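#lab-general

N.A. 3:47 PM
ok so I finally got the sequence cleaned up, no stray characters, all 188 residues accounted for. can someone with queue access submit it? mine expired

B.Y. 3:52 PM
send it over

N.A. 3:53 PM
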Amino acid sequence: MTPGQHFIISWVTANTVKLDRKSRICITMSGLLPDLDGAGMIIDKINKYFGTHTGYYEQFHHVYCHNIFFGLSFAIIFCFICGKRISVFLLSLLTFHLHIICDMAGSSGPNGDLWTIPYFYPLLPDIHLTWSGQWELSSWINSLIGAIFFVLALIIARYRHVTFFELFSKRVEEVVYETGKGRGFFKF
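B.Y. 4:20 PM
back already:
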């Protein structure tokens, strides 16, 4: 799935229980941070611009940050950042694993190449998780899932008075919420 879809799924998951803003941000980040290992795409594009071909994205994406040790590390870090709350630890692990599941389900390439997840890397680097039913990244299924979670985010905004803009700035979130409320977006 795309980072935007991971973002909205993680934010909605972070709002399944009543938590403070810092906790919601940390939980959401647990569902986004696995894509840090996709930064090779930027290096590949820069190198291509200068006439050099590299394959860092294909080589490293879904490796270093898509494993249980990465997920556990950040769940523990965020638990301590948020005051040792077990709910932050568990929801951080959940959003991390939702990221993994979404990638295994909806990230195949247009030519049918399946992404695999070395879940136990670096301890057991040769064991990879995959699913033969994986659909294409640009499929209607991913779009539908993203749309469903966006609607859930609107429902959360209506009843909890928070939006996913809280990750960027509390002030921006207030402006977005008040504007949306004034235009009837949060009236059901």
